[in-house]
Amino acid sequence: MPTCCEICCEILIAILLPPLGVCFRHGCCSVEFCICLLLTILGYIPGIIYALYAIVFVDRDQYFDEYRRPLYSA
Fold it and tell me: Does the predicted model carry a pTM greater than 0.90?
C-alpha cells in the first residue's frame, strides 16, 4: 500500500509528465502506461486526467505479478 507522500509525489509528476507518473505507479510495459501515452500524444489534458485516474483509483496490487513489476517497489 503506497503512502500518502508517494501518491502526492506521483500526482505532481503526473501533472507535469502524465506518462511518467503512470510509469512509476504501474510500470513501463503496462496497459495503463500505453493508454496514458496515447492520450498525452493526442492531447495533454486527457493524458493528465487519465494519469490521475490511473494513479488514484486503479489498484496496482490487484494486477501485480512478476512480469509487470513497477520501477520501484515499496
Answer: no
